[in-house]
Amino acid sequence: MSKTHLGHTARKRFGQNFLHDEYVIDKIVAAINPQNGENLVEIGPGLGAITDPVCERVDKLTVVELDRDLAKRLRHHPFHGDKLTIIEQDALTLDFSSVLANAPNAGQPLRVFGNLPYNISTPLMFHLFDFTTDIKDMHFMLQKEVVTRLAAGPGSKNYGRLSVMAQYYCQVVPVLNVPPGAFKPPPKVDSAVVRLTPHAEPPVEVQSVTTLERVIAQAFNQRRKTIRNSLRDCISEADIKALGLNPTARAEVLSLQDFAAIANAVTDREWPGE
């Protein structure tokens, strides 16, 4: 079966699946609700399924596209080419604070959206979390399983490192479920759209975000282990008990607040008096 859509062959290495369902596209654009005067950034515009209707509403849009052929196609777009600022780069290596510095609407944070290639969605989330002070909100089409993980709470089998870090940085709201048939070629999984809104203030007080990330990664790296064992090289059993936590608990039952308490205790031990 041909995987060509509108004259472009979907490239497996870029994880390309092109959205074509008008109903779904309208729902996504309505959820984003783009307005003139905003600094809108689309990651992976592809064949322009979301780009085109957004450009019909606004005068300026920045797009980040790694595929040279698709970038060229957008550059020569018969209707919207003059509205687009095209960044030909991998979003995983892009400095979004520099995108903001060069954005057309001074003083406005970025509004980021896109139908993300599923093979890079999780590392891209972590990359974007580094720029949440520059971002007003994000709307992403992701594998449904990833959206479930982003929104999962303690005690759920879907709850993990991505859940805790996403919820540290953002409010997570699932917006829309999308069936495989909305794409060409159809992916083998269901998709969903999620809205991530960076918190004005983090929901927990953390002395070192780096330590928080390390503790969470270590705790979930071997999720079958108790926290007494998975975190033994950075916090003692006595110190876990002193925080009011059960050393025999597993990572998946700990809340963001619990991880923040552990991270702060680790920071105090590693950097006393700082």
TrEMBL record:
Catalysed reactions, semicolon-separated: adenosine(1518)/adenosine(1519) in 16S rRNA + 4 S-adenosyl-L-methionine = N(6)-dimethyladenosine(1518)/N(6)-dimethyladenosine(1519) in 16S rRNA + 4 S-adenosyl-L-homocysteine + 4 H(+)
MF (Gene Ontology): 16S rRNA (adenine(1518)-N(6)/adenine(1519)-N(6))-dimethyltransferase activity
PROSITE patterns linked to this entry: RRNA_A_DIMETH, SAM_RNA_A_N6_MT
Transmembrane segments: none
UniProt-annotated binding residues for S-adenosyl-L-methionine: N17, L19, G44, E65, D90, N115
The EC number(s) this enzyme carries: 2.1.1.182
Domain Ribosomal RNA adenine methylase transferase N-terminal span(s) in chain numbering: 24-200
Entry keyword set: Cytoplasm, Methyltransferase, RNA-binding, rRNA processing, S-adenosyl-L-methionine, Transferase
Main location: cytoplasm
Pfam families in alphabetical order: RrnaAD (PF00398)
Subcellular location as annotated: Cytoplasm
InterPro entries reported in the protein's UniProt record: KsgA/Erm, rRNA_Ade_diMease-like_C, rRNA_Ade_Mease_Trfase_CS, rRNA_Ade_methylase_Trfase_N, rRNA_adenine_dimethylase, SAM-dependent_MTases_sf
NCBIfam families: ksgA (TIGR00755)
HAMAP family in the cross-refs: 16SrRNA_methyltr_A (MF_00607)
Family of this protein: Belongs to the class I-like SAM-binding methyltransferase superfamily. rRNA adenine N(6)-methyltransferase family. RsmA subfamily.
UniProt xrefs under PANTHER family: DIMETHYLADENOSINE TRANSFERASE, DIMETHYLADENOSINE TRANSFERASE-RELATED
Purpose: Specifically dimethylates two adjacent adenosines (A1518 and A1519) in the loop of a conserved hairpin near the 3'-end of 16S rRNA in the 30S particle. May play a critical role in biogenesis of 30S subunits.
Name of the protein this chain belongs to: Ribosomal RNA small subunit methyltransferase A
Species of origin: Alteromonas salexigens
Gene that encodes it: rsmA
